[in-house]
Design brief:
124 residues, globular, 5 strands, Nucleotidyltransferase, domain 5, 4 helices, alpha/beta, 38% helix, single chain
Length: 124
């Protein structure tokens, strides 16, 4: 299992699927810094196709909190190894790498997803 030793060393990306009353299922594109557990939300979409995944990688890289603190980093996905060439073309110029590590993404995102669904059940 990967252990982060500094902020933004490993960032897990995932699309959280959730139902809506009007549009059916939608996807919240999110990233979690493994070290600090800081959550980045890059937006929601009605699909999660390859082009949208690439779009949200770019949105993450342009996030002011990400840009301010990143130098060399690794984006961690639960799948999408077929997009590795495209993703690395986006992130390599900024010192980024990509790996696929489903167990790490599951470990990092399980509490995030649980919190989101609990908040749906108990809105404030």
């Amino acid at each position: 299992m990967i252990t982060a030793t500094r902020p933004l060393e490993y960032i897990c990306l995932y699309q959280i699927e959730y139902p809506t009353r009007d549009k059916g299922d939608v996807y919240m594109f999110a990233a979690v810094d493994v070290f600090s557990e800081f959550l980045f939300v890059t937006g929601t979409e009605e699909s999660n196709n390859d082009q949208l995944i690439l779009k949200h990688v770019k949105l993450l890289l342009n996030d002011k909190n990400f840009k301010q603190h990143s130098n060399s980093f690794t984006l961690v996905f639960h799948k999408h190894s077929e997009l590795k060439k495209d993703i690395e073309a986006i992130i390599k110029p900024l010192g980024g790498n990509m790996i696929v590590d489903d167990p790490l993404v599951a470990k990092v995102f399980t509490p995030v997803i649980e919190h989101i669904f609990k908040s749906f059940a108990n809105p404030h």
